[in-house]
Amino acid sequence: MCDPTALTLMYSSLAMSAATAVMSYQGAESQSKVQEANYKQNEIDATSALLNDYSQNQTRQGQENTVAAQQIQERTMAARREQSSAIVAGGEAGVSGFSMERILMESAGLAAADNALTKQNRDWSLDQLNNNMKGDQATANSRIKSAPRGQKVSALPFLIQAGSEAVGAYGTYKKDTAGLPKVEPTKAKQRTAVPMKR
Predict the structure, then answer these.
(1) 186: in domain
(2) 138 lies in some domain
(3) Residues 6+ apart with CB under 8 A from 46
(4) Per the structure, how many domains does the chain have?
(5) How far apart are CA 55 and CA 177, in angstroms?
(6) What pLDDT sits at residue 68?
(7) Residue 14 falls within a domain, yes or no?
(8) Cα dihedral angle (54, 55, 60, 66), rounded to 10 degrees?
(9) Are 82 and 107 in contact (CB under 8 A)?
(10) Is 35 left (phi over 0), alpha (psi -120 to 50) or beta?
């Protein structure tokens, strides 16, 4: 028979190894779930920030277009007023023909140049805002990728660890009981019933 103390120690060691492996696996699985939840929240936050940045840039693009259209309209109307004034003044002064056409063309040319400059400035601003949106997209992608995803946890390493500890516990048990004599369980002597006298 084996030593009951060594046997108890071996079973205790096996139970502790199994419990440790289960707790380690559960801890790793819990950590993986938390990491995945953090990744998803980071992705939501980055996407929300990107949409907010896009909205601001698109609002600014609309404002740039509106301001440019107003400036062009105002300059065009100012050129028409200049031309009307020039026609009236020329008629009163008796100026007509090529001289009048030259004055009107110069006024229209200046207005066209001013309007072209306004359009160019607007286009540069819109290009910059488009580049800002590309940069915002790259920033959001980088932010999303910066958070690690939760990895699926395999039970195999924990089972191997528990198995290794079990083999070690069994080896220790065998070493501790190697020199002990085997003891046979004692059989209880059978008692024979003695009839009672009356």
Answers:
(1) no
(2) yes
(3) 140, 143, 144
(4) 1
(5) 77
(6) 96
(7) no
(8) 130
(9) yes
(10) alpha
What sign has the CA pseudo-torsion 159, 164, 165, 167?
positive
In a domain, 160, yes or no: no
Q: Read off the tokens for 54.
A: 């896009």
Cβ pair 25, 136 in contact under 8 A: no
Spatial CA neighbour of 143 closest among 61, 31, 45? 45
Q: pLDDT at position 150, please?
A: 80
Q: Report the distance separating Cα 198 and Cα 190, nearest Å.
A: 24
Q: Which two tokens stand for residue 129?
A: 């805002």
Contact between 14 and 173 under an 8 Å Cβ cutoff? The reply is no
Identity of the residue numbered 2: C
Residue 131: domain span: 26-151
Contact 170, 13 (CB under 8 A): no
Q: Which residue has the tokens 């309007």?
A: 115
As a whole number of angstroms, the distance between CA 61 and CA 179 comes to 90
Which tokens go with 123? 């286009």
pLDDT of residue 13: 73
Per-residue pLDDT of the chain (198 residues; tens, 9 = 90+): 456 666 676 777 777 777 787 888 888 888 888 998 999 999 999 999 999 999 999 999 999 999 999 999 999 999 999 999 998 988 888 888 888 889 899 999 999 999 999 999 999 999 999 999 999 999 999 988 888 888 887 877 777 777 777 777 777 767 766 666 665 655 655 666 666 666
